[in-house]
UniProtKB/TrEMBL annotation:
This is Membrane protein. The chain crosses the membrane at residues 57-74, 86-104, 110-128, 175-195, 201-219. The keyword Transmembrane helix applies. The keyword Hydrolase does not apply.
Amino acid sequence: MENNISKIISNFLLVFVAGYADTATFTSGNEVFSAHVTGNFVVFANKLVHNPQLSDYRILLTFPVFIVAVYFTGYLNSIIKNERSLYLIMGTILAISGLLAHFIGKNYAIESVVNFYIVLVVVFALGIKNAINKLYGKSTFGPTTVMTGNVTKATLDFCHAFMGKEKDVDARKSFWRMLILIVGFLIGCISGALLSAQYGLVVLLIPATLILLYYSLFFSKKEIASS
């Protein structure tokens, strides 16, 4: 029971952080997605048809930065093979982005190159998070960054669990797990938007601190084995 509760907390935390960071950088990072980087292709394409500027092209840098972060994580994992350590590294890099925003970024406009570089640090951190999710998939109920697949699965699970003559117990269990991910992500999005709009990207210190505290003090490998 304890392991199940711990796994629920860790899953909620991971989707909260993703939604929080993604919305914070979009709100106070000149409309750049840090977790859902392919969303930046949509943002870029939209800018191309609305009085495009040379500076609009730099958003494409988020993609290679994300790829480098994923490769870095895969390589590092082949050496240390430690989920906790990888999340602590991710949390540290996310904290660095918040500190940079506080000590440097606050002196520059949202549209500035300096602010964009800070956002790239966030992208790198979230790239690590995405890679960990793939490397240690058993630790989570599903993808913890992009919710499209989770919404699809939750809908199908709901259909199988609550509709029709035969009720699928496993589908019902899966539905509630997906709901935890979706709701956690939504709460993260709302929190990231409200706080970053008021205080800027320094608020990334909040999810960074949560990650560092949880994976330093509470994370257990037993969570992976729990169902």
